[in-house]
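All the exercises in this workshop are built on plain-text protein records. Instead of coordinates, the fold is spelled out as a row of discrete tokens. Once this layout is familiar, the rest of the handout is easier to follow. The record below serves as our worked example for the rest of this section.
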Amino acid sequence: MRHARIVLTVLPLCLAGLLAACGGGDGSGSGGSGSGEYGTGLELGKTISTAPVDATVEPWYLWNNSTCSFETTKDHPKAYKADLREVTGGDSQLGYMHYGNTDPFGVSNSKSIEEAAEKAEMPLDVYNLKFPSRTEPLANARTAVVKGDKGVIQANLDSTILPSFYEVLEGDGCIPSLQLYIPLEDHPAFGNHWPDVGTAIGEYIAEEAQARKWAPEDTALVQCTDPSSGPSVDVMFDTLPEAVSASGFKIPKENIFDLVCKVEENQSGYRQVTDWYTAHPEFEHVAMSAVDTLRLPNMIRAAERQGAPREDYISGAGADEELSQKLLREGKQDVSISFLGERFGEYAVPLMQDMMAGNPVPSFVGTELIPLTQDNIDQYYPE
């Protein structure tokens, strides 16, 4: 039996599995600063650049410099605007704690944050959290306090560390921080809005499947999940099938399979997809999704072992700077969801500016999401 396949995944959210500026006290995007007990005394001027925001999630927070904590506020703009602005007054010393720069996505994030801080003329202390170390985050927090950083952008991927981390950073140093990648209940965060990631992939699957005249009842949706990614990431595997159905391609529930493909496993995704094909030879068409490109090549390899010609499947991956773009240009995948990792600084630094200036920020801001194809990749990532 020949198998037509859609293979999809998305850019890694820093190994696991993914904000913007309101622009001043009046929410106009023209700069400014808060007053009194809010913020750290930073003053902002004219806008240098603006980045498009995909999602703004309530509640909104203000940094209270008297209590050294975030508090919720209902007095905020309707939406968040990612304006990078000039600093006109106050101490702008900023800290940035990356998780290790161990993959292209993280390297891109770091380069972008450093460039944005330089444009805004904000001095930047750079720290390495050395994930999965449980000691380096606390050591870095103590160093940030000693150095006198006024705000910190941090990428702690292990949320169990955060209470002790905040005890040092906020309790000892009265330093506000922006959490990268992981949505939190009590602190501002920035990254990819994973419900929208699932929706974007689901809409693509539906469009392509219908264009190829597939029948939903003959199609399986196979998703390579990973509990270590956390519920804020794995929510994409709920919104994805919902979007497929809402877009007019209603795959039966019994045709949806969630595999567990742990990132620490060697060649993660290969064994799981191979075993799935062995157990389910009845499906003519298969759409596969995963969180990141760490799994995608193994999933494709497992699918190719079934012997189907290239024209019988459509593949996709996240748009990091290396593997996924290479596969896309080679024709081994048809769509990549770009998270603009190389532009993270255009979101993270404005968010930090707002906190330090005493302006309200959302609990989570998501980057713009761009579905890339061979037709438009050069528009966003010219060779």
Remarks:
- Confidence is low (pLDDT under 50) at residues 9-31.
- DSSP finds eleven helices and 17 strands in the chain.
